[in-house]
Design goal:
With 276 residues, the protein is mostly helical. It is built from 14 helices and no strands. The protein is globular. The N and C termini lie far apart (43 Å).
Length: 276
């Protein structure tokens, strides 16, 4: 409601003020160039940005906290507030503000989704997450929103949310298809494997770089849980060379190898995605 909107405006304003104060304007051109000049930047690198945003996120912590005994009405209100903050952030042009919103969702949505109803989670998916994924879209925000945002909803209500992903994998919007491919990145043994492989098969003929890369990334991540299944799928499926190489990067002929730690963010883990 109006109260959520007001809190959202004030929170995002505080973030913008803090980011602007900590920015190094001389860094902004290089940051813009790295993102193909698609977005404006204040000019604040990731470590400093996270430190600045942590203060505002801490102030919002109790407002967005969710526990098993949180009343249902409160869960709905908190979800609405989280969505309002994220969508308010997306009205700003500076990319660091979008990163703040994506990080806030990654931090707060998992606990809220666990205690929210199916209907509330689907509403959040169709409202907030759909809007963020299809607006100001590029891999740096979409990947975090896919793995940690949609992924949190999948973890809470897999049957219903993955049914929605069955629609997204056929969407005209490429970023929604990428999200469907990546939303199970963190599921490990809980992965709906038939669905993952079905999505990869449906998109195997796609020429778009970001889809080919996502197929490989999703398969590579699952190979850490079931190398045999991924090797077998790659062997029998006509994948693009990029998808095939990425899929077997960990469990190829050389066997398992050290990979990025569990705590690396979705965007960090695929940070080379923008280079074709």
């Amino acid at each position: 409601g109006d109260q959520s909107r007001l809190v959202a405006i004030m929170a995002v304003r505080a973030v913008c003020d803090a980011l602007r104060a900590a920015a190094v304007a001389a860094d902004a051109p290089a940051m813009r160039a790295y993102m193909r000049d698609q977005f404006a930047f204040f000019g604040i690198r990731a470590p400093a940005r996270r430190a600045v945003c942590r203060t505002v996120m801490a102030q919002l912590a109790e407002e967005l906290a969710a526990r098993k005994d949180t009343p249902a009405a409160e869960v709905g209100r908190k979800l609405q507030l989280l969505g309002s903050i994220a969508q308010e952030a997306w009205t700003h042009k500076e990319r660091e503000v979008h990163y703040f919103a994506a990080d806030l969702l990654a931090a707060r949505l998992p606990a809220l989704a666990k205690v929210a109803s199916v209907e509330e989670c689907l509403s959040f998916l169709d409202g907030t997450l759909d809007a963020l994924i299809t607006t100001h879209s590029w891999w740096d925000t979409v990947d975090t929103l896919a793995a940690h945002g949609v992924g949190a909803l999948v973890a809470a209500h897999p049957t219903h949310v993955l049914a929605r992903m069955d629609e997204w994998i056929a969407a005209d919007n490429m970023w929604k298809r990428r999200t469907a491919l990546l939303c199970q990145l963190r599921r490990k043994s809980a992965t709906d494997v038939p669905r993952l492989l079905s999505y990869c098969t449906k998109q195997a003929g796609e020429s778009e770089f970001f889809i080919r890369k996502a197929i490989g990334w999703a398969l590579r991540e699952h190979s850490k849980t079931d190398a045999t299944a991924v090797r077998a799928f790659v062997a029998r499926t006509a994948l693009a060379p990029l998808s095939r190489t990425e899929a077997l990067r960990v469990v190829g002929a050389g066997g398992p190898r050290a990979d990025k730690g569990e705590n690396s963010s979705a965007a960090d883990a695929d940070a080379d995605a923008d280079a074709d």
